[in-house]
Design brief:
The complex is a heterodimer of chains A (about 140) and B (about 130). With about 140 residues, chain A is an all-alpha fold. Chain A contains five helices and no strands. Helix content of chain A is about 70%, strand content about 0%. In chain A, helix 2 (about 15-45) packs antiparallel against helix 3 and helix 3 packs antiparallel against helix 4 (about 75-100). Chain A is elongated. Chain A starts with a helix and ends in a 9-residue tail after the last helix. Chain B has about 130 residues and is mostly helical. Chain B is about 80% helix and about 0% strand. The two termini of chain B are about 20 Å apart. The chains are: A mainly alpha (about 140), B mainly alpha (about 130). Chains A and B meet through helix 2 of A and helix 3 and helix 4 of B.
């Protein structure tokens, strides 16, 4: 019975609103990774920190996408960590960019809180965490 | 009429098409339904036009009119052609308003990508 309920909550995660989130995360995974690959391949020496950060952001989106598609408590935890890192990333990079533009050129998905992407990078992790909370595995309730 | 004009004319139609897809699927979502037949129809027509644009672009780049930044242009071209089928696949697996929302997202992203594609192909000289 516990197993069945567990499976139910688990399955819920990637359906309904979860499917929309997966679509948006997959889009960002492709966009950020492709952009970073291009930057790293063509002008790495121009702004190594920004381009490495781009690449890191791409990997975080990729991991979040995979973790949201997969079932099971372990993947739920991976998704929570990936989406939290994403939120932290967009907040830190956005704030640092405002404080000191020279060190953080407008070259990553997270720059200026994701302004170049309609601020979706800022809203997305909040929605992601809310959805993961709503679909958390039952045996974690009360923790 | 050169390839540039063909692509320019197509791009305007494609942007209109992708926004129409987003709007029609948005109406379906607001009515708590899976994407309407009309939304899917516009999506399929737009996808055919996207394939035409891709062929024109590839043909032009082999006929002395290369894109200004081919390393950027072709990955964008692949993304532009792939996005609607990917959205449709997700929407078919989710036959309710959330499937419609996936199509809304796909339409909006496509509109942005087509604009970017135009910019990358090359801004008119002068």
């Amino acid at each position: 019975m516990v197993e069945a309920e567990h499976a139910g909550a688990d399955d819920l995660r990637r359906h309904g609103p979860g499917r929309v989130l997966i679509a948006v995360y997959a889009t960002f995974a492709v966009a950020a990774s492709a952009r970073a690959s291009y930057q790293l391949a063509t002008r790495f020496s121009d702004a190594p920190l920004a381009y490495l950060l781009s690449g890191f952001a791409g990997l975080v989106y990729l991991l979040a996408t995979v973790a949201m598609i997969r079932t099971g408590t372990r993947w739920w935890r991976v998704a929570v960590v990936a989406v939290s890192v994403e939120l932290l990333g967009v907040l830190v990079v956005g704030t640092l960019g405002i404080l000191d533009r020279a060190d953080f050129p407008d070259e990553t998905v997270w720059s200026v809180f994701g302004r170049g992407y309609g601020f979706v990078p800022l809203v997305l992790p909040v929605l992601g965490l809310a959805w993961l909370r709503a679909t958390r595995p039952r045996h974690l309730d009360g923790s | 009429m050169g390839a540039d004009e063909v692509i320019g004319w197509l791009a305007t139609t494609l942007i209109a098409g992708s926004l129409a897809i987003a709007a029609l699927a948005g109406i379906s979502a607001a009515r708590d339904r899976a994407p309407s037949l009309l939304a899917i129809g516009v999506l399929l027509v737009t996808e055919v036009l996207l394939l035409v644009q891709a062929l024109v672009a590839v043909a032009a780049s082999f006929n002395g009119q290369p894109a200004d930044q081919p390393g950027l242009f072709f990955p964008y071209l692949v993304a532009v052609v792939a996005i609607l089928p990917a959205g449709l696949l997700l929407a078919r697996a989710e036959r309710n308003k959330f499937g419609s929302l996936v199509i809304v997202v796909g339409g909006l992203v496509l509109a942005v990508l087509v604009v970017r594609l135009q910019q990358i192909w090359g801004t008119p000289v002068g």
